[in-house]
Amino acid sequence: MARRKKIYEGKAKILYEGPEPGTLVQYFKDDATAFNAEKKATIEGKGVLNNRLSEYFMTGLNAIGVPTHFIKRINMREQLIRAVEIIPLEIIVRNFAAGSMAKRLGLEEGAALPRPIVEFSYKDDKLGDPLVPEEYIIAFGWASQQDMDDIVALALRVNDFLSGVMYGVGIKLVDFKIEIGRVYDGDYMRLVVADEISPDSCRLWDIKTGQKLDKDVFRRDLGNLTDAYTEVARRLGVLPSNVTHATKPTLIN
Ligand SMILES: Nc1ncnc2c1ncn2[C@@H]1O[C@H](COP(=O)(O)OP(=O)(O)OP(=O)(O)O)[C@@H](O)[C@H]1O
Ligand SMILES: [Mg+2]
């Protein structure tokens, strides 16, 4: 990490200059924030888990033809990514009511929605990432109508992929957020999934028990966040099953 130029430090990750033009190194920190950074903590091991999990989901998306910024994992906390021009939107896909939507509409948390709902918030921490209609996005030029059609199609493909992967390990994908960026190949522009896909940016409930396995554990003080993320990683086979974050030595006799 030494001598590498830091490009940006956010709440959960740091971006460094990559080894080649058009690349960046994304470093996953252990910092957790919620409620627009009003609540903060350092959670040992979170960055390592999110690096692995984001690698797992992005690799799977690339494999089924959904383009992402992911190139390769470098080490426990870092991955090589393509530098993109981030569209200043959080793209949220909801399958079941939860969080701000449940609150806004007076819906019960967990109520099934008639179909997946895609919504957008404008990425601006000072404003608290306000929900914005497509009309605003196009009028203010953050994205074109064509971009929006492509973004919704991409988001729904990510939703189907992630829902299926999670269902396979007994987890319900309630909702998630992605960021999308632009990559330029000469005159041609492509939209790719960027940032991260991890339990920090999804709501994941155990199908049988309803137990929360995502950042709500931290937001709502429901227990140990690392344990929850480790459980997701273990079920997906992303961590060898004998690896835990226990620090005590085990005696062999
Ligand atoms: N491939 C990429 N190219 C360029 N920027 C990226 C890429 N992927 C993610 N980013 C940006 O890198 C930053 C990641 O840091 P982090 O998620 O910690 O930020 P944050 O504190 O959530 O702030 P922000 O409000 O900017 O998202 C984000 O600003 C994200 O938009
Ligand atoms: Mg972020």
UniProtKB/TrEMBL annotation:
<dbReference type="Pfam" id="PF01259">
    <property type="entry name" value="SAICAR_synt"/>
</dbReference>
<dbReference type="GO" id="GO:0009236">
    <property type="term" value="P:cobalamin biosynthetic process"/>
</dbReference>
<feature type="domain" description="SAICAR synthetase/ADE2 N-terminal">
    <location>
        <begin position="6"/>
        <end position="235"/>
    </location>
</feature>
<dbReference type="InterPro" id="IPR033934">
    <property type="entry name" value="SAICAR_synt_PurC"/>
</dbReference>
<keyword id="KW-0067">ATP-binding</keyword>
<comment type="similarity">
    <text>Belongs to the SAICAR synthetase family.</text>
</comment>
<keyword id="KW-0658">Purine biosynthesis</keyword>
<comment type="pathway">
    <text>Purine metabolism; IMP biosynthesis via de novo pathway; 5-amino-1-(5-phospho-D-ribosyl)imidazole-4-carboxamide from 5-amino-1-(5-phospho-D-ribosyl)imidazole-4-carboxylate: step 1/2.</text>
</comment>
<keyword id="KW-0436">Ligase</keyword>
<dbReference type="GO" id="GO:0005829">
    <property type="term" value="C:cytosol"/>
</dbReference>
<dbReference type="InterPro" id="IPR018236">
    <property type="entry name" value="SAICAR_synthetase_CS"/>
</dbReference>
<dbReference type="GO" id="GO:0004639">
    <property type="term" value="F:phosphoribosylaminoimidazolesuccinocarboxamide synthase activity"/>
</dbReference>
<dbReference type="GO" id="GO:0006189">
    <property type="term" value="P:'de novo' IMP biosynthetic process"/>
</dbReference>
<dbReference type="GO" id="GO:0005524">
    <property type="term" value="F:ATP binding"/>
</dbReference>
<protein>
    <recommendedName>
        <fullName>Phosphoribosylaminoimidazole-succinocarboxamide synthase</fullName>
        <ecNumber>6.3.2.6</ecNumber>
    </recommendedName>
</protein>
<dbReference type="InterPro" id="IPR001636">
    <property type="entry name" value="SAICAR_synth"/>
</dbReference>
<dbReference type="InterPro" id="IPR050089">
    <property type="entry name" value="SAICAR_synthetase"/>
</dbReference>
<dbReference type="InterPro" id="IPR028923">
    <property type="entry name" value="SAICAR_synt/ADE2_N"/>
</dbReference>
<keyword id="KW-0547">Nucleotide-binding</keyword>
